[in-house]
């Protein structure tokens, strides 16, 4: 593939730290090759103290765009020229598009999650969703769900540093969209049971279920999950978390985080190249069908 690179190729970056383990460079470059577009994607180790310079470098070198990951998703917003309404509400950006020197910040995490539901034939528009989590993934999902037309969001999280932030985001959702968002303490299991009984979808957007919390689930009582509930987990490693195991045993339809990851990449490629990336192809190539 490298033999094809000539002077017309455009560079897409990924600014994060640590980042060498990321699957994104492989996934994105497979798709650029398949689409036959003159793009290459490279990961750059960028810590917060280097972020402003990295964005200036992006302008100076004319990168077509960049992905942004931890710990830079919030801080990067202040160095950009424009933010989408979703990014304004979430307060975090994972995708920058450089259009003739104008840098716009997008967030494709929530877009990827909502698209993964749609592709799995799950219709949550006009309905209620229960979301567990209050970090980066949960914030992006909550805002995108509200913007896409989910009618009601019941958000649960433990009372940690993230809790107040998701309360703020819920406030913005209630002010700016037609969705009604309410935040509850995860310790209130009666409230969780009640929320789930009226929900179409449950989404786990916490790290509970992956290392070092692999084998754990925030839902321990299977009777909370009736079989009509769609149970999704943002985690993709392991493919089947404890939560999804419990949900399957109850007869629920389940989704892991692979769809979210692939479709958020699809949204990025659409922003940077205008093309629709063949998600089934990369899923197969990366061994995500197993
Ligand atoms: P984060 O650090 O911003 O948030 C972590 C969340 O987990 C918080 O809500 C925190 O309160 C909660 N949490 C942590 N330990 C807990 C515990 N013991 N009990 C209850 N809650 C606990 O992380 P994030 O970036 O929002 O990621 C959350 C999950 O989503 C991770 O598993 C991550 O791998 C996954 N994720 C998946 C994708 C994807 O494309 N599939 C994208 C982003 C994140």
UniProtKB/TrEMBL annotation:
Enzyme class of the recorded protein, top EC level: oxidoreductase
Residues holding NADP(+): 133-137, 234, 257
Residues spanning the signal sequence: none
Pathway entry: Metabolic intermediate biosynthesis; chorismate biosynthesis; chorismate from D-erythrose 4-phosphate and phosphoenolpyruvate: step 4/7
Chain sites annotated for binding shikimate: 22-24, 69, 94, 109, 236, 264
UniProt-listed Enzyme Commission number(s): 1.1.1.25
Residue ranges of coiled coil: none
Keyword rRNA processing: no
Residue span(s) of domain SDH C-terminal: 257-285
InterPro entries: Aminoacid_DH-like_N_sf, NAD(P)-bd_dom_sf, SDH_C, Shikimate_DH-bd_N, Shikimate_DH_fam
Occurrences of domain Shikimate dehydrogenase substrate binding N-terminal (ranges): 14-96
Catalytic activity: shikimate + NADP(+) = 3-dehydroshikimate + NADPH + H(+)
Active-site feature positions: 73
Main function: Involved in the biosynthesis of the chorismate, which leads to the biosynthesis of aromatic amino acids. Catalyzes the reversible NADPH linked reduction of 3-dehydroshikimate (DHSA) to yield shikimate (SA).
Protein name, per record: Shikimate dehydrogenase (NADP(+))
